[in-house]
Amino acid sequence: MSTTVIAEPVTARDPFFDNAKYLAILLVVCGHLIENQRDAPLAHALYFYVYVFHMPLFIVLTGYLSRKFTFGAGKARKLISTLAVPYVIFELAYSLPRLFLYGKFELSLLEPYYLTWFLMSLFLWRLSTPVWQQLRWPLLVAVVLSLLTGMSKLPDELSMNRTFGLLPFYVLGLMLKPEHFQWLRRPYMRLAGACVLGLGLATALLVHAAVPTEWIRWRLSNTEIGVDDLTGTAIRLGLLVAGALLVAAFLAVTPARHTWFSGLGAATMYAYLLHGFVVKATERFELGLLPSIGLGLVAATLLCTPPVRKLFHWAVEPRMSWAFTPLRKPN
After folding, report:
1. Can you tell me the distance from the alpha carbon of 231 to that of 177, in angstroms, rounded to the nearest whole number?
2. What is the tens place of the pLDDT at every residue in 300-318?
3. What angle do CA 66, 190, 211 make, to 5 degrees?
4. Global pTM?
5. Residue 3 pLDDT > 50, yes or no?
6. Integer CA distances (angstroms), 239 to 42, 49, 171, 230, 232, in order
7. Which residues contact 190 (CB under 8 A, 6 or more apart)?
8. With bands split at pLDDT 50, 70 and 90, how would you rate the model's confidence at 69?
9. Residues 6+ positions from 60 with CB-CB distance below 8 Å
10. Continuous segment of H or E residues that includes residue 68
């Protein structure tokens, strides 16, 4: 008895999304490298500006690229091998320096440490994907959940504050369609996007000193930050709107053609998970704003290159076929 295997057509990668992810990881890495220089007004303003939209940008793109997620065996296995296992690996990896430097070893798999919160939140967002696709007004529900959770002191386990607080950006990505990105690519939208980004930077320069940094980190409740729920809800809603506008503006100015860095955009998870070691290694040095930005640009780029992918594939994209049974297909 013979079987015929029909290969699925290979879909070419859209360089637009790879370009956007590469440019986004530059913001993430540079933002982390200037974090310790927030005492300087300009550094603090840039830090505030970047943090309003750099992770929302990643989350929107991730949501869009997760639209076809189901509970099928193949998708579930990929969820384990690309998120769950790397989460455990990097939770351990980022905990070890504390053991060597301070003689303390703390590991809590339910309480993400440092950069790993994104893996935890993304794992939960992906699991919830089929639910959002069944709702009539998914974005409205996600925004309401985000605002309501700001009124409660949620536990640190499962990165609950960030998972719920940033949820609207993931759901927004799920709701987007190819024509929305085609609309952003129009020439007049490129000009509008540049103006919005410039206006956002000017606003950050004006208001950064008056806005507590915790607002842009999405880690604490309204009470913990020091405001009542009415004020906190208004600020959170404003941050959601500002983040969405800046994400749209950023995507509008992102080149759609194939560029020299398009190939690097496919490996941004390497840069995200590994750049924390660069930050930890340099945080004791006072590099200055421009050198820190330069280091961030170089580090983010190098960490997306093929040699790094080959060296750390076992940690970021481990091959887990040995851990799974053969796919079972219904009769």
Report:
1. 34
2. 999 999 999 999 999 999 8
3. 75
4. 0.90
5. no
6. 21, 11, 16, 14, 10
7. 252, 253
8. confident
9. 169, 170, 172, 173, 176, 244, 247
10. none
| Helix orientation angle between 117-132 and 85-102, rounded to the nearest 10 degrees | 160
DSSP string, 241-287: HHHHHHHHHHHHHS--S--TTTGGGGGHHHHHHHHHHHHHHHTTS--
Alpha helices in 9-116 (DSSP H): 15-33, 41-65, 73-79, 85-102
pLDDT tens profile 110-142: 788 888 999 999 999 999 999 999 999 999 999
pLDDT of 331 reads 55
User: Distances from the Cα of 66 to the Cαs of 117, 167, 239, in angstroms?
Assistant: 18, 14, 24
Alpha carbon distance 171, 130 (integer Å): 11
Long-range pairs for 85-94: beta carbons < 8 A, 24 or more residues apart = 85/318, 85/320, 86/119, 86/269, 86/273, 86/315, 86/316, 86/317, 86/318, 87/112, 87/116, 87/119, 87/120, 87/123, 89/315, 89/318, 90/115, 90/116, 90/119, 90/273, 90/315, 91/116, 93/315, 94/276
Counting every residue written for the chain, the total comes to: 331
Query: For residue 219, which of 260, 164, 181, 172 has the smallest C-alpha distance?
Result: 164
Residue 173 is predicted with a pLDDT of 96
Long-range contacts of 318-325 (CB under 8 A, 24+ apart): 318/81, 318/85, 318/86, 318/89, 319/81, 320/77, 320/80, 320/81, 320/85, 324/77
pLDDT single digits (tens) 255-278:
999 999 999 999 999 999 999 999
Distance of CA 163 to the CA centre of its chain: 11
d(Cα 315, Cα 168) in Å, to the nearest integer?
Answer: 29
Q: What is the SS3 assignment for 70?
A: coil
